[in-house]
User: Which sequence fits this backbone?
């Protein structure tokens, strides 16, 4: 049983699964859960892409 | 300036009207069960769909971590990072116990994705801690 996703796929999986848990545990109503989960997912992805570009700039 | 407004204690507003009114021991049972089986605490406090989503998310994250050949930390009194990793892994409850019993999880990280797998397993455990505490909060009426 081996699973070897690309780095970006691993990030997306991590962000999606963690966002579901954050959404459910940090908000009380269904609508607020969905909104907060999507917000967390977007923040995860934006932070990763931003950090990626930052590392690219540092490397140059 | 003194105020004459009397606010109820946090969570007290729900205790009388919430259909899920539980004793403290019941809430602690939800905490323990939620730790052992991700999402089970929410099922116990009558939030089955939340429990189902939590179960799927946390279990998927842990299983993917193991499938990525991530390391499962074992109990030891050595380095502080190993101890913290073990505490994180232990948060997954029965998932960790079963994975250790079946000898899943590599002792040392050898490929890049295995390092991600290690983090997936640790974070799955930490997220399960949050989920179990959330079930407890619902049980005592602090959260709806």
Assistant:
């Amino acid at each position: 049983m081996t699973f070897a996703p690309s780095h970006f796929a691993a990030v997306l999986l991590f962000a999606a699964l963690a966002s579901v848990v954050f959404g459910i545990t940090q908000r009380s109503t269904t609508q607020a859960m969905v909104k907060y989960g999507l917000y967390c997912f977007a923040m995860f992805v934006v932070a990763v892409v931003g950090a990626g570009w930052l590392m690219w700039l540092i490397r140059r | 300036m003194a105020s004459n407004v009397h606010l109820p204690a946090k969570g007290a507003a729900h205790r009388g009207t919430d259909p899920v009114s539980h004793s403290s021991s019941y809430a602690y049972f939800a905490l323990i069960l939620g730790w052992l089986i991700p999402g089970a605490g929410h099922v116990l406090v009558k939030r089955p769909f939340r429990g189902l989503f939590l179960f799927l998310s946390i279990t998927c994250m842990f299983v993917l971590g193991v499938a990525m050949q991530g390391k499962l930390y074992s109990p030891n009194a050595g380095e502080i990072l190993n101890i913290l990793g073990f505490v994180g892994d232990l948060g997954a409850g029965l998932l960790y116990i079963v994975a250790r019993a079946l000898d899943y999880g590599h002792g040392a990280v050898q490929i890049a994705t295995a390092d991600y797998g290690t983090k997936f397993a640790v974070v799955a455990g930490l997220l399960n801690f949050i989920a179990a505490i959330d079930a407890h909060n619902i049980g005592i009426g602090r959260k709806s």
In short: DSSP finds seven helices and no strands in chain B. Confidence is low (pLDDT under 50) at residues 1-17 of chain B. The radius of gyration of chain B is 19 Å.
